[in-house]
Specification:
Elements: E1 40-49, E2 67-76, E3 79-82, E4 90-94, E5 97-103, E6 109-116, H1 117-120, E7 127-131, E8 137-138, E9 141-148, E10 153-160, E11 163-164, E12 169-170, E13 185-186, E14 205-207, E15 232-235, H2 237-241, H3 254-259, H4 261-267, E16 271-274, E17 278-280, E18 287-289, E19 294-296, E20 304-310, H5 324-339, E21 343-348, H6 365-373, H7 397-412, E22 418-421, H8 436-440, H9 459-466, E23 474-477, E24 498-500, H10 502-512, H11 519-526, H12 530-533, E25 543-546, H13 555-558, H14 594-613, E26 617-621, H15 648-652, H16 658-671, E27 686-689, E28 704-711, E29 715-722, E30 728-731, E31 738-745, H17 762-767, H18 770-773, E32 777-780, E33 784-792
Parallel strand pairs: 15-16, 15-26, 16-21, 21-22, 22-23, 23-24, 24-25, 25-26
Antiparallel strand pairs: 1-2, 3-9, 4-5, 5-9, 6-7, 6-10, 8-9, 10-14, 11-12, 13-14, 17-20, 18-19, 27-28, 28-29, 29-33, 30-32, 31-33
Length: 796
């Protein structure tokens, strides 16, 4: 997620607030009254001693213990109710029933709400089960065990307590809240379709597990690729197959992705990074867009409602079987990806939630324990390091355990292979009411840490890095946030964390478009950015290299537009990043002369060649392989339409030769032992060159970088980039008994841009270079890059 997303998401429209949940003419539960559908109520007498002091309630101060005689309801329901257990959190199968446990330290009462699927859409609670603070509470955990028939049954909670935002409390007993640990969230079943009465925020509820829940993994096991061997593909589940040209049976769904996994296999990627697939509300930004004549939606999904539930409306089955089918469909995607040798990484958003600022809805965390889950100022205001209204209180002991539990669940139950953490620098900031004794066990001398202070050893990152389950998966940080904390090269890593290398993106864009003063920095990028990672003991694979991602220009737009063109977002072109380091190659927009269009294709190949020959882990953005354009829009968060859809018809066009180039370059990278090194290259393997061998030009005016690289499979490679507007003839390093043979030249038109073995008349094409190669020379056009291979000289 880039630092500028949408300017309208920081404040919620009054029409998008959480609705008051309507009950079946049921009074608020208390010790004296319980209302329950299909229940018979009788009463017995009980003696209650009120506990004085501040034991987590709203009492305030010690006092004399009072004794009262009240009528204790004895309810005979279709469920057998017992005390239950405080662990694990969530709804779990246990002792022949379902155990419900939830943390809330400041609530004075809690009620478990059971909701039949048929009642959910009518805003009805099927049954309420008040929890006794004496028998159904251990410490700050409320719990109950139920036995009975849970078919088509959902659940939520109601908490009562102080509603005092200035003190950090937002309890509202009229709200039915989601359990943060619920494994599936049910509300609307179809993406982009309004709820009852055109409600953008209809009531939601969690799935109750049953003993029938099962999935056949067919022996699926983690692929466990070394990270240095990855080629990552950033993918949006809905956007990948939603366009009609995909021809899939289940467009825009997990199953749709499965139908098109073979495309990724052909492209040569072995890891997909799924943009957010946790439950979110795509109607969060719902409003009419007069520019396009459609409605704005939260298409990207960076606004999580629940972290355990997969996005239900990405499933072809929707809400059927109370979300179990959606869970299994996600598992099916992971299983089928693994069958094809493709790992699955999830893009997760633990920096903020969909509840937004003080004007946002009360859905879950805010109503369960606002002061615990969010980073609050002394008067209850929300810190906004995320740029989206609130900041998740990641280093609070309860919250960091929640995050750990969630990540473990997705690894063990859903078989995912790793995570990319959106705005991960927020996870390094100190929590609200920071207390070193609480966090580290003892006071630290000179500890002046306040809320939000960056920590050198964040407890959450420490726990994740040393967790026996999570330590074995991929952990990738987007090492910045919107509060100005930029940690690329400095993110706390414990030797295992990788980073989205934003500096790689910026430097490569500048150098390839011909900006002076970047030749040295470009060389560092080619080596895996040792200037960022070597001193800290990390490796080249700790750098995830990318030219483009979901936010910002696509690769095609990067060479087509100097300026952003975001009018379609309905925000007067004020949103999105204004500094993109792009170059339109001479004319703004898609309609350009032939020479400009040829240069643009050359530049796209230059960028991708650079990505494939750089040490580190390359990441490809969905659609770049065929030159997808968003019309110069670099902030397409709100478009559920052709702007964000993968255009399969464009990919299949015979005139599109970029896909072939991508496939051949990824194959070349996989074949080369030297292009995925575990350590930074040294002079024993790599030598730098200029226009003449062994004399690199690192001056401010240099626009030429070349190097040779010894490879145990290919022998030796010569790679050169000429980003000047002038052509140049380079002198090649002499290798007695050998000669250089051209493989890639981005200045040539397809198929001669990559001289693979199946190219017709390949030998003739190579002989055309003979007069230069015999003299150990090679001519390079302006804005071009080449790869030459060292081969035995038959005439030597």
């Amino acid at each position: 997620m880039e630092l500028t997303r949408c300017t309208s998401c920081l404040q919620y429209s009054p029409t998008l607030t959480s609705p008051t949940f309507r009950h079946q003419a049921t009074p608020k539960p208390s010790l004296r009254t319980i209302s329950s559908t299909n229940a018979v109520v009788s009463t017995t007498r009980m003696v209650v001693k009120a506990r004085g002091g501040g034991g987590g309630g709203g009492g305030g101060g010690a006092g004399e213990a009072d004794t009262a005689v009240v009528e204790k309801p004895k309810v005979i329901r279709r469920f057998q109710v017992s005390e239950g257990h405080p662990a694990p959190f969530g709804a779990t199968l246990r002792d022949g029933g379902v155990n419900f446990a939830i943390y809330s330290s400041n609530a004075v009462s809690a009620t478990l709400c059971l909701i039949a699927l048929s009642d959910l859409h009518q805003n009805k609670v099927t049954e309420q089960i008040p929890l006794d603070p004496l028998s159904n509470k251990t410490g700050d955990v409320w719990h109950v065990l139920l036995k009975g028939d849970f078919k088509d049954m959902l659940y939520g909670y109601m908490f009562d307590g102080e509603f005092s935002p200035e003190k950090g409390h937002c309890y509202d007993a009229s709200k039915v809240l989601l359990d943060p640990y619920a494994k599936a969230i049910i509300s609307r079943g179809e993406f982009g379709v309004l709820g009852p009465e055109d409600n953008c925020w209809p009531q939601m509820a969690g799935m109750v597990p049953t003993f029938e829940d099962q999935f056949d993994w067919e022996g699926d096991l983690p692929l466990r690729y070394p990270q240095r061997d990855l080629i990552i593909y950033e993918l949006h589940v809905r956007g990948y197959t939603r366009h009609e040209s995909s021809g899939t049976q289940f467009p825009g769904t997990y199953r749709g992705v499965v139908e098109k996994l073979d495309h990724l296999k052909e492209l040569g990627v072995n890891c997909i990074e799924l943009m957010p697939c946790h439950e979110f509300n795509e109607l969060e930004y719902y409003s009419y867009n007069s520019v396009l004549g459609d409605y704005k939606l939260n298409f990207w999904g960076y606004s999580t409602i629940n972290y355990f539930s997969p996005m239900i409306r990405y499933s072809s089955s929707g809400t059927s079987n109370c979300g179990r089918d959606a869970i299994n469909e996600f598992k099916y995607l992971v299983k089928e990806a693994h069958k094809r040798g493709i790992e699955v990484i999830m893009d997760v958003v633990f920096n903020h939630t969909a509840e937004g600022n003080e004007k946002g809805p009360i859905l879950s965390f805010r109503g369960v324990d606002n002061s615990v889950y969010y980073m609050l100022a002394p008067k209850g205001e929300y810190y906004n390091y995320s740029g989206c209204g609130n900041t998740f209180n990641c280093n609070h002991p309860v919250v960091r355990q929640f995050i750990l539990d969630c990540l473990r669940y997705w690894v063990t139950e859903m078989h995912v292979d790793g995570f990319r953490f959106d705005l991960a620098s927020i996870m390094t900031r100190s929590s609200s009411l920071w207390d070193s004794v609480n966090v580290y066990g003892n006071a630290l001398e000179g500890d002046l840490i306040t809320t939000g202070t960056p920590l050198s050893s964040p407890p959450l990152i420490d726990m994740m890095s040393n967790d026996p389950i999570l330590r074995g998966v991929k952990l990738i940080a987007e090492a910045w946030d919107t509060g100005g904390l930029y940690q690329v090269g400095r993110f706390p890593h414990w030797g295992i964390w990788s980073e989205w290398n934003g500096k790689y993106r910026d430097v490569v864009r500048q150098f390839i478009k011909g900006t002076e003063g970047f030749s040295g920095a470009f060389a560092e990028c080619l080596c895996g950015s040792p200037n960022l990672y070597q001193e800290g003991g990390r490796k080249p694979w700790n750098s995830v290299n990318f030219i483009c991602a979901h936010d910002g220009f696509t690769l095609a737009d990067l060479v087509t537009y100097n300026n952003k063109h975001n009018l379609a977002n309905g925000e007067d072109n004020k949103d999105g990043e204004s500094h993109n380091n792009s170059w339109n190659c001479g004319q703004e927009g898609e309609f350009a002369c032939i020479s400009v269009k040829k240069l643009r294709k050359r530049q796209m190949r230059n960028f991708f060649l650079c990505l494939m020959v750089s040490q580190g882990v390359p990441m490809i953005c969905m659609g770049d392989e065929y030159g997808h354009t968003k019309g110069g829009n670099n902030n397409t968060y709100c478009h559920d339409n052709y702007i964000n859809y993968f255009r399969w018809d464009k990919k299949e066009e015979s005139s599109s030769d970029l896909f072939r180039f991508f496939c051949l370059m990824t194959k070349f990278r996989r074949e080369c032992e030297s292009l995925g090194l575990n350590n930074f290259p040294t002079s024993e393997r790599l030598q730098w060159h200029g226009h003449t061998p062994g004399k690199p030009d690192w001056s401010e005016t240099s626009r030429f970088v070349a190097f040779t690289l010894i490879d145990s499979v290919k022998g030796e490679l010569y790679v050169a980039f000429n980003t000047s507007h002038l052509a140049v003839t380079v002198t090649l390093p002499e290798r007695p008994g050998y000669r250089w043979e051209p493989l890639v030249d981005t200045s040539k038109s397809a198929p001669y841009d990559f001289l693979s073995k199946e190219v017709p008349e390949r030998e003739i094409a190579i002989k055309q270079y003979a007069q230069f190669l015999d003299a150990n020379l090679y001519p390079m056009l302006s804005y071009s890059s080449i790869i030459l291979l060292l081969t035995p000289d038959e005439n030597a």
